[in-house]
Amino acid sequence: xxxxxxxxxxxxxxxLCFGGLIIGPLQANLPLDEGTNVxxxxxxxxxNFIDTAELYGTYGYIREAIKxxxxxxxxxxxxxxxxxxxxxDSLEKARRELDxxxxxIFMLHEQESRMTLRGHRExxxxxxxxxxxxxxxxxxxxxxxxxxxxxxxDMPGIEVIHPIIxxxxxxxGDGTIVEMLSAVKRAYDNGKGIYGMKPLGGGNLLNSYxxxxxxxxxxxxxxxxxxxxxxxxxxIMNVCVFNNEPIPESIRSIAAGRKKHLHIDYWCEGxxxxxxxxxxxxxxxxxxxxxxxxxxxxxxxxxxxxxxxFAIKVC
Length: 315
Description:
The chain is of the alpha/beta class. It is 35% helix and 20% strand. The strands form 4 sheets. The chain has an 8-stranded parallel beta barrel, surrounded by 6 helices. The chain has a two-stranded antiparallel ribbon with strand order 1-2.
């Protein structure tokens, strides 16, 4: 496994970051021991970086993995808090539920614009003060939007940026993948730590897995890439790819054979754009939320490309 220093933070991370969303209650909802073992499998194979968030509900898995790991991994987490009080509660919840005193990277979660950054300034100032006290090692921002990367590239105190990056630009809220990469490069050149998210477009690009991984791994201005993994086989497959090693055929077959489904997250706004896109009439609106008729769905992922809140994934 290759390791890089995350910008100017001094924090060394593996090129492959364990994306903590998929094992938790919002997606696979694995039993505690099973999810813990998936994380431990990654740590045993050289992954030393775990991405999570208060929203994901995965602190318990990570806590148990840390207890059994040979060394403590780097932990990045996020919160939607916008006030100092909310930020304090989120930070203390992370410390308590992860059972660690110092959070390596604490981030504002899913910022949408310069305006939302201003709206979260009080929380941000709280995180800065906690960094001064040694409770947070680095402060950052996660985003799906080019505008936020551009703003954070020049923002003092923001040390880490976690943007969405995949070959098709699925999920980018306000631009193209070319524009996103341009903003990311400028942030990287300014000393920001960069670790990408959703290289497979939330699962929508699984059919082009190799091309997707080649794309992100050949971007020279990304320090690490967070990949969601819900099984030991998926961990092995991704570790092989990041280590430029052949994937055992047995592992490839198991990972490829896992049954996929269309997942619609709870924050769906019921706008109906996905139903208009679906040529199979597999999506419909009920109780102001999108629903899927599984028997009609081809898992093409076209619906995800028009979802304004990135609430649809293939997983």
